[in-house]
Amino acid sequence: MAGYSFPKNEKLKSRKLITMLFEKGHTEYLFPLKTYWMTSSDEFPPGVKAGFSVPKKKFKRAVDRNLLKRRMREAYRLNKAEIITKALEKNITLSIFFIFTANKILNYHQIEETVIAKLEAISKKI
After folding, report:
1. Does the pTM exceed 0.90?
2. By 3-state DSSP, what share of the chain in percent is helix, strand and coil, each rounded to 5?
3. Rounded to 5 degrees, what are φ and ψ at 78?
4. Which of 4, 6, 45, 124 maximizes the CB count within 10 A of its CB?
5. What digits encode the pLDDT tens for the residues 65-91?
6. Where are the domains of the chain?
């Protein structure tokens, strides 16, 4: 199924876009994720770009940070279809950045529930 991939063009990598997102974007918090999101319609091609981060301050070992980022990416990848469709219909670029804020490693299902809730909330607001 092609709809469940997470290709390079959907990854939030543009330094300019990330800076704009943190300066002008909306912020929401739902344990264990802090989410920054922003829409723009003119400068970038329509679609959704997502980024994921786990702070080194809370998880010293890279293996732990990578595990949590993998879990967030997987939850996003499996549940992104609705929000991508909505962004393309409205011809906007949606940038989303997820930051893991818990102090301990959570299982995949807890992370997935939060990612789904965040995507639904953002979907309603765009």
Report:
1. yes
2. 50, 25, 30
3. -80, -15
4. 6
5. 999 999 999 999 999 999 999 999 999
6. 11-125
